Amino acid sequence: GPKVLQIPSHQIIDMGQMVTLNCDPVSNHLYFYWYKQILGQQMEFLVNFYNGKVMEKSKLFKDQFSVERPDGSYFTLKIQPTALEDSAVYFCASSLGHQDTQYFGPGTRLLVL
Amino acid sequence: TQTVSQSDAHVTVFEGDSVELRCNYSYGGSIYLSWYIQHHGRGLQFLLKYYSGNPVVQGVNGFEAEFSKSDSSFHLRKASVHWSDSAVYFCAASIRANTGKLTFGHGTILRVHP
């Protein structure tokens, strides 16, 4: 199926530092998503993004989080500053329309020390 | 708000067996339902999705799922499993009127013994 890429695959960072997670969505897709999965738990929605704007965000999407997709490049999730509870696997997804199938990347495993 | 529940945390079968993984949802309105598979350490792969119409949906690798409005269910089935089907299976729901946000169940770990 369509491929979504995520860079990096793993990131270790000290608490309080900034981290940027990058997502390369499917080329013609218009809707972009971030989900968070803590080890052994279910996938939880963070935010979705369309036409340069956040459409919906969950309570997990704290003030320290931000997303953007400047000039059609990577769709990024920035956390500044990071906290211990941000340790998780972050999955990016994209879809053509907002109710079309979402295709997921392989995830970025973030460890905050 | 919608919820998704997968009642079986673990299912273990032998290769060649049939399997059914259960998914129930709670939401009063129109809803889309999907199944995804996650192999160990990897991202989610799309299996199938129900929009409307025929309640039995065919997916990849011989999987199918049946939507039942009366039971609020969307169970996943496969007639004959292979050891490579061992993975975590997630059921997900999206409300038709919303922004596309997926709500996931907790997942079912399927183990297929050779």
Oligomerization: heterodimer
Major sheet of chain A: size, sense and barrel closure? 7 strands, mixed
**What characteristic shape of chain B results from the CA principal axes?**
globular
CATH architecture of chain B: Sandwich
Plain-language structure description:
The complex is a heterodimer of chains A (113) and B (114). Chain A has strands at 5-7, 10-13, 19-24, 31-37, 43-50, 53-57, 65-68, 75-79, 88-95, 103-104, 108-112. In chain A, strand 7 (65-68) and strand 8 (75-79) form a beta hairpin. In chain A, 0% of the residues lie in helices and 50% in strands. In chain A, strands 2, 4, 5, 6, 9, 10 and 11 form a 7-stranded mixed beta sheet that branches. In chain A, strands 1-3-8-7 form a 4-stranded antiparallel beta sheet, with no helix packed on it. By secondary structure, chain A is mostly beta strands. Chain A has one domain (5-112): Sandwich (Immunoglobulin-like). Chain B is mostly beta strands and 114 residues long. Chain B has a single domain (3-113), classed as Immunoglobulin-like (Sandwich), CATH 2.60.40. Chain B has strands at 3-5, 10-14, 19-21, 24-26, 31-38, 44-50, 56-58, 63-68, 73-78, 87-95, 103-104, 108-113. In chain B, strands 2, 5, 6, 10, 11 and 12 form a 6-stranded mixed beta sheet that branches. A 4-stranded antiparallel beta sheet of chain B has the order 3-9-8-7, with no helix packed on it. In chain B, strands 1-4 form a two-stranded antiparallel ribbon. In chain B, strand 8 (63-68) and strand 9 form a beta hairpin. Chain B is globular. The A-B interface holds A 1, 4, 6, 31, 33, 35, 41-45, 48, 50, 55-56, 58, 91, 93, 95, 97-107 and B 32, 34, 36, 42-46, 49, 90, 92, 94, 96, 98-107.
Task: Considering the chains and any ligands shown, give keywords for the structure.
heterodimer, A: 113 residues, mainly beta, Immunoglobulin-like, 7-stranded mixed β-sheet, 4-stranded antiparallel β-sheet, B: 114 residues, 0% helix
Nutshell version of this structure?
Chain A is an all-beta fold and 113 residues long.
